[in-house]
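Q: Two folds, back to back.
A: First:
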Amino acid sequence: MIIETQNKILGVNGSPRIKGNSDILLNHFMESVRQNNIEEKIINLRDYKYSGCIGCERCRKDKICTGLKDDFNQLYPDIISSKGLVLICPTHNYNITAWMKAFIDRLYCFYNFENPRPGKWSSNLANQNRKAVIIAICEQENEADMGYTAEAMSKPLQALGYEICDVIKVLNSFDRGKVKENQALLTQIKATADSFAKLIK
């Protein structure tokens, strides 16, 4: 299965909090992307009604999720067509939020599995020069308190065939809008976005 990508960056926000730190950092990232003349789009998962994968396996035949009829079907075209992907998510109980977990699980339809199972597998998104940036946010000061947040986003994307270009771990950020006070972080986000945009061109 060959899927053609576009020089576009899709930002996916797993935070349920409106105008929170995830929103601010993703908007800041995408502003730099726009300044580099790269097409971009932001998806706030809280705006969509969808569930996680139910394991019906219909995608083995259809090559896309057809077992669930919900808002996630609106997201597949942007996921498929975007060469660049940015996932941003706060830490909820040492891990990603339920919204982000369900998002990642719904990417299961892009895998191919050989019989008998378990056996060899491949991804329909692999070998297409897809790239990703991961941003994880935690209210605590100690990185250990972030738990698996960053890895829970990066490892599944790697398995799907994305090159992880950068992983940014943001600590000590809970109060809404607090990241605006962190000039070093904002500078880092802009620099990462500029570099990422150049890779996508």
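A: Second:
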Amino acid sequence: MGESIENQINRAIRNHKRGKIFFPSSFKKYGSSTAVRQALNRLEDKGLILRIAQGIYLYPQKHEVLGILYPSVDQIAIAIAKRDKARIIPTGLNALNKLGLSTQVPMNLVYLTDGTPRTVTVGKRKIKFKVASPKLLSARNETCLLVIQALREIGSEKIDNVTIKKINSILKNVPDDELLHDANLAPVWIADIIKHIINYP
């Protein structure tokens, strides 16, 4: 008699470092969708994994003082995108936070994606995936994309010299040709800011 699906999944999970995020589809080679979910439920009951959202499991890393170390909502979003082989673009306060332009951590995260639009609930927080325009997805540089989304969030009327200097510093290592290409995908006022940074006429 062959090894049970539960034991196979148990072994597969233990082959990874703690802190790893899993989905039922991570184990599809071991059996049907129903069988895999049942095995995951049993492994959750035994304390090997935690279900942190519907269909999302964590092989928990434990700290002797802090207890279980949960992944950030952003890490969960990245794991979902990787599973779906989709591209995601942080928006709003999330983009500002990633660039160090704000210390405020948004309660709910919104991403533009070329994957399936959906909302995922993680505890009291939500991850929303919205369809991105093909134009925006043709951008060449991830940093430039973040800057475009961050400037959208700030708004043209609230851009000051301090922000411009910070954006300049963030973009200084991005090749000019990529900056120019991606600037042309943004609203005119954002394109003007980026072109000014690279002294483009």
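Q: And?
A: Residues 33-45 form the longest helix (13 residues).
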